[in-house]
Design brief:
- This protein is of the alpha+beta class and 86 residues long.
- 22% of the residues lie in helices and 40% in strands.
- It has two domains: 34 residues, no CATH class; 50 residues, no CATH class.
- The protein is built from one helix and four strands; from the N terminus they run αββββ.
- Strands 1, 2, 3 and 4 form a four-stranded antiparallel sheet that branches.
- The longest helix is centred in the first third of the chain and has 19 residues.
Amino acid sequence: MSPGARAALIAALGLALAASRLGATGHGPVYGLATPTLGQGLWSLDVAAMGRSSGRGEMAMARPMLACGLTEDLQVSFSLPVPHGR
């Protein structure tokens, strides 16, 4: 077995053993990678920055997202891209 294959096998085995101890609970998929819903009456404001470079030029933009929890299981989100330049 090559050293690279052996290292990949050991890493996969380690992740498999860790996964059994890190059982997911609550909202979201395994390890909580998804953002949980907000509780009733709670809100959040998130901002993401994005950029793109192509043969036609460069562009930068911000994307604010406002979310409000209507119930424990339902939230409403609003997002609006804001271009900064081309």
